[in-house]
Amino acid sequence: MTEHRYGLGDRGPAVAEIRTKLVQLGILPPTEESTESTESAVDAVFDQRVDQAVRQFQQQRGLTAHGVVDSETYRVLEEARWRLGDRLLSYVAGHLLIGDDVGTLQRRLLELGFEIDRVDGVYGPKTEHAVKEFQRSVGAPSDGTCGPATFKALARLSPIVTGGRADALRESERVHRSGPRLPGKVVVIDPGHGGADRGCSANGLSEAEIAFDLASRIEGRLAATGVRVFLTRGRDASPDEATRARFANETNADLVVSLHVDEHPNPQASGVATYFYGTAGSDDDMRSTLGERFAGLVQREIVARTDLRDCHTHAKTWDLLRHTQMPTVRVELGYVSNPGDASRISDPGFRDVVAEAIVVAVQRVYLPPDMDTPTGVLQLGELIR
Ligand SMILES: [Zn+2]
């Protein structure tokens, strides 16, 4: 697929469209030219202000804030423009509706006490189910489609939960119920890239290989504790992110760990970072609370057990994080372009330590506060089988 990218200095109708979207979102103030509408779309310029607005948008939405409108940023811009009531909402298998209107709907249903696992802006089967329940409860035809009558009913009712994060409570309640024992739990390990896609490569290291090797080390340790482990790919396969997410959903995994390494033109760049599903900033942000907690545990266990630089945890809306229904984290385990990180990563002993850190983090997700241990001290032999 050829990818169109728009950035500073570009001009033309596509830039005009991007500017219009940013103005509609209230991120870019309307210019005099555009309010006078004397400027033709062909002359629309991607200037400094547009660049700033795009970066701000990307930051708000958990995308990498590089100021370039690539296909991912464009897609998220598209999703952001929908307001609840703008269009009919329904569940279509294989072609899910995604947008801010769906996020608003999910938040509203949650406030009203209906079961939504996560506010993610995706109209999936669970959202359809919640809408049907809602329709039944107000005596409307329960077809799972949100049209004008449903929008009106939603607006009429006052929430029974206010200010709370009902989805967060529900997520932690499920973890609490499942108890601390590891046997029977399902973890999907996702070695990044694979096949023809080798990922980052520098200093004789290939990301696809590192990720697969690390996945095997984690798999062995987790399986020994009784956890059922699945890998999203074979050694030479390279499924896309959506396929990986679907796989995790179909195995009904409790947790997903995606493994990557990073690279940067500047060889000084180094360190480990862990990502979870979410958008940054405002109060009505979307995020997986448990994903955030899991990411924190993974990051802290790795930092405590290795001498990798701590690049912290961050909310992102990458497809795998968003489309998995369970807490999912993505670990970027150091920079192959950094000589120090590269020599660590190539050491099998280091990979074992990282595998152990991740297994311990999985266990800690399920430990109630009174049983939890400080970071860096729990050993494999002490896991609860
Ligand atoms: Zn990668």
Bound molecules: zinc ion
Question: Can you give the helix content as a percent range?
Answer: 40-55%
Q: Mind telling me the C-alpha Rg?
A: 22 Å
Q: Using the alpha-carbon principal axes, give the shape.
A: globular
Oligomer type: single chain
Mean pLDDT: 88
CATH architectural designation of the largest domain: 3-Layer(aba) Sandwich
Q: Number of DSSP strands?
A: 8
- Tell me the fraction of residues in β-strands, as a range: 5-15%
CATH class value of the largest domain? Alpha Beta
Number of helices: 14
CATH topology of the largest domain: Aminopeptidase
Order of helices and strands: HHHHHHHHEEEHEHEEHEHEHH
Topology at a glance:
Blueprint: H1 13-24, H2 32-36, H3 48-60, H4 71-80, H5 100-111, H6 125-137, H7 148-156, H8 166-178, E1 186-191, E2 201-202, E3 205-206, H9 207-224, E4 228-231, H10 241-250, E5 255-262, E6 272-277, H11 289-305, E7 310-316, H12 319-323, E8 328-335, H13 339-345, H14 348-365
Parallel strand pairs: 1-4, 1-5, 5-8, 6-7
Antiparallel strand pairs: 2-3, 6-8
The protein binds zinc ion.
Zinc ion (ZN) is lined by residues 192-193, 199, 207, 260.
